[in-house]
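Could someone model zinc ion with this protein?
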Amino acid sequence: MVEAVRTVVVRSVPLPRRTFRIFVELEGMYRNIVEQLVLYAVNNDITKFTRLRAEKYREVRSLYPQLPSHYAYTACQDAAERAHSFLRLRRMGKARKPYPEVRSVSIWLDDHLWSAEGLTSVSLATHRGRLRVPVELNKHYLRYVNRGWRLALEAKVKLDRRNRRLVLYLTFKKEINGYRPKNYITVDVNEDAEAVLIDGVVYLLETNLSRVTLGYYYRRRSVQEKYDRVYGPGSRLAMRVLRRLSNNERALKREIRWKLAALIVREAARRQAAIVLERLGREPANHMIERIKNPQLRHRIFQAAFKGMQRAIEEKAREYGVPVIYVDPRNTSKVCPIHGTEIVYGRNRHGVCSKGGETWHRDVVACYNLLLRALGGDGGAAPSRLRALAPVDGGPVPLGPKESHDPPAVKLGRWLRAKSLHSIMIEHKMSEMKV
Ligand SMILES: [Zn+2]
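Reply:
Sure, complex below.
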């Protein structure tokens, strides 16, 4: 049994000025509390909510006695999490400022501070008593309600000042029955593509995630330089353009990650297969992106292309009850899956086995080695190697020395449009037959 968790955004109807002002006041107090708590936490190296609460709860309560007491709790949780991620970044030398900035605030709510009243309104505790706020139903929200997800007790709320609305971030949870895997789908995550081994064929699905990150980075930098020259540094106009670029970047990456994760997870569910992933350390794939010298940029590429992609697969898998198996990532692309000997790579991503002399594509090697590790056959025992490789074209050698060694590559646009990986595979088989 696994628990799947999803956040769903719901907006309130536009609120009367007087009501909205109460929420603006509430947000101001909450922000102030969080700012003070974060400062204290960072100065005292506190990352645990319980310790922060123990040391600061009383003081926070006396600061705004009219505020419902549970805001002091949720502000401590919020601040502890901010301090935690800031201190971690600072330890890695990636913090840009000496202190974390509390820029955007969403107010954290627990079950004492909010409740749903049917589907169409929520009630929120404020310094002026409880307020009932009607919400707009949307498709996304109703889908989770109708499919048996249950609403969690915690939620967050943000203020949309321009439209005088509240934006609620609701959490839905669901228990899902997993299954015992009959089969494996292995996924080798790279910076710009993902190699997937499925029914004996490795597919290379292009994601371009590092290219997207780099592209937006350079665009932002040139926009900043241009605006700084014309309007002076830090102009509002520049900020607005930069913010829009960041939002576009985030939305594009999210779409790529979720859609690809959904494609892979659905194939796994259909086959009752487990998904095999590399166990990622803090930044293990650094060797792939070490040419990028800027540590912040490298961190962002790592987060988006490796960690973000894995997390999307994990979350989708939980929703479908698909088991995920993690294996040791060391040398997965360096050792021949058949002979267990070193593969010597030339340029491109092609290499030759030092024993058998057969040619390999790096991503194919990685996928097969992940499968071998999942099967527990990495000790060099031949039977399991053969077992893992048997489905490949009826024989253990996936590619002859003279054949084309590239796995079928699927362009980003093509799989984004595809309904399922299945349809891509059929298309691939058809084109093979034509050849
Ligand atoms: Zn070999």
